[in-house]
Amino acid sequence: MIYSLNGTLTAAGPLYAVIECGGVGFKCSTTANTLRRLPKIGESAMLYTHLNVREDALDLYGFFDQKELSCFKMLISVSGVGPKAALSILSEATPEKFALYAASGDVKALTRAPGVGTKIAQRIILELRDKISGAQAAEGFSQADTGIISASGNVEEAINALMVLGYSRSDAAMAAARCDESLSIEEIIRQALKNLSK
Predict the structure, then answer these.
(1) Of 81, 69, 77, which Cα lies nearest the Cα of 34?
(2) pLDDT digits (tens, 9 = 90+) for 100-137
(3) What are the tens digits of pLDDT across the range 70-99?
(4) Strand-strand pairing, 58-63 and 44-53
(5) How many structural domains comprise the chain?
(6) Within this chain, do residues 153 and 169 fall inside the same structural domain, yes or no?
């Protein structure tokens, strides 16, 4: 198994990058988020990799950090989600945002990724929702990164009220996460609305 590539970035295109190591260029399929963080062509670069073995091909996938690699592996473990769909989701959302969407059950946010329909998004949430909090701890996602909160009664009520006002669960949870849990429901809603308007 190829764990990582460390060499010179020799080419990059839509959802792929080529890293040359010891005279051999390795083409890695990757996400838009990873491509944005890579250096200029000709500079030194490193990617964490996943080798996908099929009967007719060996496909190499590269990621800027281990959080993104971990999310990719979780996604392709879901029945019906292939590497292409996983790359599409992680091109639309950072690992932290993906963790938030999965943990909060935000189907709409996941379907923004091209090629991901409602049924696949629901399956991802169903299969990964329970795994995501354990993975967050293992991968070092902080509550500040994701906005995921262990909602107290007042916070949960405030989130539900914000959803009635038309906000998605993930946006409402992120805004409420910045509020003091000891506040009244009304005050949490008021502060969350200020956070959402910024």
Answers:
(1) 69
(2) 888 778 899 999 999 999 999 999 988 887 776 544 54
(3) 999 999 999 999 999 999 999 999 888 888
(4) antiparallel
(5) 3
(6) yes
For 26-75, what is each residue's pLDDT tens digit? 999 999 999 999 999 999 999 999 999 989 989 999 999 998 999 999 99
Cα–Cα separations (whole angstroms), residue 191 to 106, 145, 169? 22, 19, 16
Contacting residues for 122 by C-beta, under 8 A, at least 6 apart: 107
> For position 171, which CATH number holds?
1.10.8
Residue 84: what are its φ and ψ, rounded to 5°? Answer: -65, -45
Other CB atoms within 10 Å distance of the CB of residue 83 = 16
- Same domain for 84 and 120, yes or no, is yes
Position 72: which residue type? F
The conformational region for residue 183 under phi > 0 = left, psi -120 to 50 = alpha, else beta, is beta
pLDDT of residue 133: 54
DSSP state, residue 30: -
Average pLDDT over residues 144-158: 60
- Is residue 19 within 8 A of residue 28, CB to CB? The reply is yes
Domain residues for the domain of 162 are 149-197
Query: What pTM was computed for the model?
Result: 0.70
> What DSSP character marks residue 111?
T
